[in-house]
Write a structure and sequence with these properties.
The chain is of the alpha/beta class. The protein has eleven helices and eleven strands. The longest helix has 13 residues. The chain binds S-adenosylmethionine (SAM).
């Protein structure tokens, strides 16, 4: 019997020397095929409710760029809620799934393949909001890349625009006391997700599926304060944090941290 609970399996003794920068290579077709099984769109919708819609409406956003569309959950949901959505992702496999899911849900929005590091070469004009969700930003392992990408996001926003960016609670994961409730973002019940290794530079998640297949995703375990500092350095102000969609939270109690940063 598998569960959706994330458990610590083994934190590993030391970091592997090389960290992957090839996010696209990590999203192999067999994992992408299972992504919606990991999410469970209905359960995800039930847990998020109107959190993102309310943030976007509060910022009077209309034109929204989802830079880590994945299989398209947020792009489709926001389009259904009436936002003018552009879905982007660096992975051709993911972008194909976004297209299919948009069609399946009767939504018609722009979909493009774009690496964040050269985002402005791919997009058309500026946006009122950028969303980078599902713990995608930790795919950047190098600090210069993290800084450059936040600058790309900043420049792609209209004045007054907001960036909503999140990550798993690596503050807890790095202290080896992470437990996922399975109630946020990745709500599917078909796979077991464990932390196979974590140190200050690398976190390797292991996904075990009921058919016996196993996948790994490797990310940089960014701390919440670290991202807040980078956002300020990139020029953002009025940064607000949420834990599992709540304004009042204790960092040790949450699965995900969500940062909302405004371009003044
Ligand atoms: N937002 C989706 C969700 O919540 O289900 C997908 C999240 S998945 C963890 C991370 C996504 O970020 C992948 O689809 C991956 O292709 C994309 N990604 C990672 N690094 C990227 C980069 N440098 N440029 C563009 N997309 C990137």
């Amino acid at each position: 019997m598998t569960t959706n609970a994330t458990r610590i399996a083994d934190h590993g003794p030391t970091a592997e020397a090389a960290v992957p920068d090839d996010f696209e290579g990590q999203y192999v077709r067999t994992l992408v095929d299972r992504w919606d099984q990991l999410i469970d769109w209905d359960r995800r919708r039930a847990s998020e409710q109107d959190f993102f819609m309310e943030l976007l409406n509060g910022a009077e956003a209309q034109r929204v760029l989802d830079v880590a569309a994945g299989t398209g959950y947020h792009s489709v949901t926001l389009a259904q809620q009436g936002f003018d959505v552009t879905a982007a992702d660096g992975s051709a496999e993911m972008i194909e799934r976004t297209r299919r899911n948009a069609e399946r849900h009767g939504q018609n929005f722009r979909v493009l393949q774009a690496d964040w590091r050269s985002l402005r070469e791919s997009i058309d004009g500026r946006y009122d909001a950028i969303v980078c969700l599902g713990s995608s930003f930790p795919h950047l392992f190098q600090e210069p890349d993290r800084r450059a990408v936040l600058t790309e996001f900043y420049e792609a926003l209209n004045p007054g625009g907001i960036l909503i960016i999140d990550h798993r609670n690596f503050d807890a994961i790095r202290q080896h006391r992470y437990r996922s409730s399975g109630n946020y973002y990745y709500c599917g019940t078909g796979a077991t997700v464990t932390v196979a290794h974590v140190d200050e530079q690398l976190c390797r998640f292991q996904y075990d599926f009921p058919d016996g297949s196993t996948h790994h995703l490797e990310v940089y375990p960014i701390l919440s304060g670290e991202l807040s500092s980078l956002l300020i350095d990139a020029g953002f102000d009025a940064i607000q944090n949420f834990g599992d969609f709540r304004e009042n939270f204790a960092i040790e109690d949450v699965d995900f941290v969500i940062h909302v940063a405004r371009k003044s």
